[in-house]
Amino acid sequence: MAVGAAISDPPLPVAGISLAAVAAEIRYRDRLDLGLLCARGPCTLAATFTQNRFAAAPVRRCRELLIDAAPGDWALLVNAGNANAATGPSGASAALQTCRIAAAALGLPPERVLPFSTGVIGEALPVEPFAEHLGPLSAGLGEHGWEDFSRCILTTDTRPKVASRRLEFGAGAVTVTAVAKGAAMMQPDMATMLAFAGTDARIEQRLLLRLHREAVAGSFNRISIDGDTSTNDAAVLIATGAGGVEIAEGSPEHSALAGALGEVYAQLAREMVRDAEGAEHCVTLIVQGGRDAAQCALVGYAVANSPLFKTAVFAADPNWGRLAMAIGRSGADFDPDQVRIDFEDVPVMLGGVVAPDYSEAAATAVMARPEYTLRIDLGCGAAAERFWFSDLSHDYIRINADYRT
Amino acid sequence: MAVGAAISDPPLPVAGISLAAVAAEIRYRDRLDLGLLCARGPCTLAATFTQNRFAAAPVRRCRELLIDAAPGDWALLVNAGNANAATGPSGASAALQTCRIAAAALGLPPERVLPFSTGVIGEALPVEPFAEHLGPLSAGLGEHGWEDFSRCILTTDTRPKVASRRLEFGAGAVTVTAVAKGAAMMQPDMATMLAFAGTDARIEQRLLLRLHREAVAGSFNRISIDGDTSTNDAAVLIATGAGGVEIAEGSPEHSALAGALGEVYAQLAREMVRDAEGAEHCVTLIVQGGRDAAQCALVGYAVANSPLFKTAVFAADPNWGRLAMAIGRSGADFDPDQVRIDFEDVPVMLGGVVAPDYSEAAATAVMARPEYTLRIDLGCGAAAERFWFSDLSHDYIRINADYRT
């Protein structure tokens, strides 16, 4: 199951970007599982990848290709069903071959095609489906392909995730559209989050990377399903410049675009948590009163990843002792006697002990909601960070223990 | 449920140490829940405590009292059912009062009584049961009280945990006896591990601390139920010197005692994992071929705490992709192409890819056993560390979500 109704925008086309998807039967049957995104022009590109040492072959190839890459045409080649991870030299070779096939179909040099895979770890990626489908795929590219593309990257997600914003400036309009797939390794061998974003603004490479990293820091890097990190995580932002608006560093346009990008990424990140299989609750966690972002992050992740507290969230049990335990074990340095905790508008802990007017019934009522906000104030500074996390449910165990593909 | 049959030794008395336990009804009914351990003579004492910032009132008091404490008489006062954690100044006052009551009953200065509590977080510790029972408790002290004492400290453990060893030297015999309670915060609000050990050897304070810390490092600090750390964890070792054997640093006796202490602690640590409620498997994890102990520990804990891999252990599913994922996300620096993984005698991964003769049936057969050994070789050095962890089961969720006291 998933939390609430899907939150997904109709994707706005992005000038300079065309997309297509096909059912290539790489692993799944009768669904889109192979996609191509093509960005033409003096495009800049920013990307972040998993920190997992067992990074998959496509991640390793992307990293190599993106060292010192010049602006220009880019193609992103994405498959679901097979992660091409822990596949050794033959996996690297398969990633290279699929990119060469795509490059030939598009008339691009192979080093302008970036590969992405998600799915089963440790199985050889078959190259034949790519050879068979890249022709029709490249012929089918169109600016309205975002919807299909958002579907072809899914694994165990129950719904596609699309976010789109349009900004109007004096110099013209800027569009940002992004798609993503789920953040939990929810099913045996599945490997996890992918996000692809495009904008038609013209943005210099260094500034684009900064915009991308800042937006990732407050969104995809602020969610937790189970604390595990896949071998294939990747998030990519392309700026085509085809819309005609140039974003100068420090300009009002820069600030507005940073805000829109942050919103788009945060919407997708939250959707990943809401659509985590097994999830019955999506909790927004604000850690405030921190010395700095790093301290807030230590506390935020300790809470978001605590199996004991996540199980309490599942049970709608306002077990604040477990919450205090998780905060206390985070490794963050703070004075426990200054800590304040609120569940929405219900004060739970004040000055390190239970709040004087604490109502367990009121706290239980908050936790019974599918979505709510917890606030932890560390009482030692002005920094604040926001996180989203899901609960640890019977379904999480059932899906991960009982289900085998 | 628990894994396998209980492993518990008949406790050997330790000269200089007497113990007793009573049913004081602090929270539980009709069971031992209050204990006293009294060590008389020029006793040295070593202790380690939780690193949780929300350390409970008794932990805070112990820390204060143990700064620069001289050898001499010691009493340990332990209750189950109430953790006296997140209780603020009134909790500190309750800890102090209970120690004063015990000190008066024993004719000791209050600063020679160390308090320990385990149980519900955030509730006031009632002082009355201590006032009522300390007289009979001190009157009942005896050297055969280890068995009762091992029972009075339990919370959701299904069985007591006692380990005992006797060493014969030319100068005489040395006995080590220790008791412990469970390491999982397995039930709402429960706070966790306690261990109390005594020996009749005479050991200088600094050497005792070294012996204790080294034994803790390879035992209580090498287990994981759920990765959460309680507010009340404590492990204490007392050396009474009453047996007449003196342990000199660097002597054969030192080495033999270090070995015995390591065995005693490791036996108790493993029993905690085997008795973790909800546990159906107890896995011994060897991380070898590491650069140093710290690198092995990063990998060991990443695996032992991975919800995805722990769920695979529960399901007896040889999902080595998840294992690789957990190793890779540990933060340890290594070459994935050098990694080797074995499940008992079944090679699973070699050189970073699936082993050429890998048999899923054989790996599944290993994982179907209640207890087995996983071996990860990082291929970058000679360091090795051993860990024990339990699985993530339906019962873990049920116990922590559905059960409320």
* Order of H and E elements of chain A: EEHEHEHHEEEHEEHEHHHEEEHEEH
- Poorly predicted segments of chain A: 186-191
What percent of the residues of chain A sit in helical stretches (DSSP H or I)?
A: 25-40%
Give a quick account of the main beta sheet of chain A: strands, pairing sense, barrel closure: 8 strands, mixed
- Please count the helical segments of chain A: 11
Structural class of chain A: alpha+beta
What oligomerization state is this entry in? Answer: homodimer
Largest interface: A-B, 63 and 64 residues
Radius of gyration of chain A: 22 Å
Distance between the termini of chain A: 18 Å
Question: In one word, what is the shape of chain A?
Answer: globular
Q: Report strand % of chain A.
A: 25-35%
Mean pLDDT of chain A: 90
Number of strands of chain A: 15
